[in-house]
Design brief:
The protein is of the alpha+beta class and 147 residues long. It has one domain (2-136). 14% of the residues lie in helices and 22% in strands. The chain is built from two helices and seven strands, in the order βββββαββα. It has a five-stranded mixed sheet, with no helix packed on it. A two-stranded antiparallel sheet has the order 2-4. Strand 6 and strand 7 (115-120) form a beta hairpin. The longest helix is centred in the middle third of the chain and has 13 residues, at 86-98.
Length: 147
């Protein structure tokens, strides 16, 4: 596993690039055994105050064939709307979801020789109960499940 955090693009495998895409919520691949156990509520950090950005930069660029995005940035940064009045929140969220955003892969599985390389932009330094709970959920296949 390659945990990049605040690394620069030189640390990325060829063809990948870092994007300016933060995330206060993540969306799992529901079909991959490593991320299928996550619910959206497990990956919601928007109410975690100053440490709400579980990812500060995204992974983009050219993914090789057979690469899989296991976690990606949610389409809405709810921290922008949590304090908004309900009558304004709906329209603002719909507009925000329509904005074109940079690529926001957070965890990517890449074919690597005879194995796999996991590249992660998750900020492992976040110390909130939500982040702690996410890290306690195993990121590996359960017995009998292939990754």
């Amino acid at each position: 596993m390659l945990m990049l955090g605040d690394a620069d693009e030189a640390a990325l495998p060829a063809g990948l690039e870092l994007t300016r895409r933060g995330a206060t919520a993540l969306v799992p691949d529901p079909f991959h055994p490593w991320t299928s156990s996550f619910k959206l509520s497990d990956l919601y950090f928007a109410e975690d105050g100053a440490e709400r950005f579980i990812m500060r930069r995204g992974i983009g660029g050219s993914l090789p064939p057979n690469a899989k995005i296991l976690l990606q940035a949610g389409n809405t940064d709810w921290s922008l709307f949590n304090e908004a009045p309900e009558y304004a929140k709906c329209a603002a969220v719909v507009l925000y979801e329509k904005l074109i955003k940079p690529a926001g892969a957070a965890v990517v599985e890449l074919p690597w020789g005879k194995g796999k390389l996991i590249v992660s932009m998750l900020d492992y330094r976040i110390e909130t109960s939500t982040a702690d709970e996410m890290w306690r959920t195993p990121f590996y296949p359960r017995r009998g499940q292939a990754g």
